[in-house]
Write a structure and sequence with these properties.
- The protein is mainly β and 171 residues long.
- It has one helix and ten strands, in the order αββββββββββ.
- Strands 1, 2, 3, 4, 5, 6, 7, 8, 9 and 10 form a ten-stranded antiparallel sheet that branches.
- A hairpin with a 2-residue loop joins strand 3 and strand 4.
- It is globular.
Length: 171
């Protein structure tokens, strides 16, 4: 019985030690900058408190975008649909289109999270990240947008009335 107990303790110690030594994979994904969108916004309105939280809609009225391999305008008529809970978390889904300088329309559905909270020391924190999905014509030079994952983060500027989104492709 005593030998069995010691063997079990040894096995447990070995298992705990082995799991604590996880190596970071060498093929960690990298990010490649794709574009910056400067999105102009209309006046936000709210549907009030719903069963899911406070629903807010922010019209997307236009803007521009530019990156190393793409440039154009943001089409008027989209919107950013947000649902906020009382804990300071907002889920968003922006649906809109862009038009490249050479006349190609691309649909975007951008889902994300905004969270304001406090860290372990009680200091305010702010997290805002999104994952846009692109739908470009399969026969266009922008079809590469259909076959990658993307991340974006906002930049706020007092020189621009709207939101600036920087977009990276996960390599």
């Amino acid at each position: 019985m005593k030998k069995t107990f010691i063997m079990l303790l040894s096995l447990l110690a070995f298992t705990l030690n082995a799991s604590a030594q996880v190596e970071i994979p060498k093929d960690t994904p990298q990010l490649e900058f794709v574009m910056q969108l400067k999105v102009t916004l209309g006046e936000a309105y709210s549907c009030g408190e719903t069963q899911h939280g406070r629903r807010t809609i922010i019209p997307i009225t236009g803007g521009t975008f530019e990156g190393p391999d793409i440039k154009g305008t943001i089409v008027n008529g989209g919107a950013d649909y947000q649902i906020a809970n009382s804990a300071g978390r907002t889920e968003l889904e922006a649906i809109y289109c862009i038009k490249t300088d050479d006349g190609v329309y691309i649909h975007i559905r951008n889902r994300g999270i905004i969270n304001g909270g406090k860290d372990e020391k009680g200091n305010p924190t702010f997290y805002f990240r999104c994952a846009p999905q692109f739908e470009a014509p399969s026969d266009s030079k922008y079809a590469w947008l259909n076959n990658s994952l993307f991340l974006c983060a906002p930049t706020f500027s007092q020189n621009f009335q709207g939101i600036v989104l920087n977009v990276w492709r996960v390599k």
